[in-house]
Amino acid sequence: MTEQQHDESKLERVIRKIKRCLALAKSSNENEAATAMRQAQALMREYRLTEMDVHLSDVGEAESGVARAKRRPTWDRHLSSIVAQAFGVRPLSRQHWCRSTCRMVDRALFVGVTPAPQIAMYAYEALLAMLSLARREYVSQVRSGERRSAYSPETAGDHFALAWVSAVHGKIHELVPRGEEDLSLPHHSSGYGLVAVEAQDKALIDQYLAGREIGKPRKAREVELDMNAQIAGLLAGQRVELNPGLATSGQDQLKLASA
């Protein structure tokens, strides 16, 4: 272990200890709470840490294993955006040189308070696999003449995929507890508490990304969509069933199935 790795490991242990103290500082026992807060403050002073530094250690990122040789299509980026919105994470695209394929690739990236990025990535990749399969089948049907379209099969497939994402949008939000639905989380006991937590997470994400060069999203071109493809995509999306499940590890995971 290098000296830098040792220092980082030591800092991680200190941050974990500070977090435990801050948790105890919320105790109903006033003496215990005061002692824990003094210990947390002493450690922060000793290691020149702020409470923001401590909370920032909870922010992480998850990168998709699915890479595209070209820029991710609009429907792919729309899918990552609605998943990110549901789980309170920031959706980004990461373009980088892939050594194994010797070319530039584009991947979805989620940034947020752990474990939200990992859960969001699980949902995104599961939905992306389902959508990609449904789109391929639709493109094949247009190509064979089974489906009619004034557009090329690939373009019609893109229009199908956009409608599919729109249909699944509301279903994804229903998976995530909101307000008083999740009684196991004290801060979700009221709408105000939920907004406060979401605002805090957003501030942490903004701080985590501060200083990074993030490109602005391109404006989507206004195009006339294939009505037949849209209807087919909406119907296919409405048939998708999303069921929340609890993993044995204690972290939420999703079971997705197509009806």
Question: How does this structure look, described?
Answer:
The chain is of the alpha+beta class and 259 residues long. The protein has 2 domains: 3-56; 61-258, no CATH class. 55% of the residues lie in helices and 15% in strands. It contains 8 helices and 5 strands, in the order αααβαββααααββ. It has helices spanning 3-24, 30-46, 51-56, 74-87, 116-144, 153-175, 191-209, 227-238, and strands at residues 59-63, 90-98, 103-113, 240-246, 252-258. Strands 1-3-2 form a 3-stranded antiparallel sheet. β2 (90-98) and β3 (103-113) form a beta hairpin. α4 runs antiparallel to α5. Residues 179-190 and 245-253 have low confidence and may be disordered.
* Average of the residue pLDDT scores: 80
Question: How many β-strand runs?
Answer: 5
Alpha-carbon distance between the two ends: 51 Å
Low-confidence stretches: 179-190, 245-253
What percent strand? Answer: 15-25%
Computed CA radius of gyration, to the nearest angstrom: 22 Å
In spatial order, strands of the major sheet run 1-3-2
DSSP helix count? 8
Order of helices and strands: HHHEHEEHHHHEE
Largest sheet: 3 strands, antiparallel
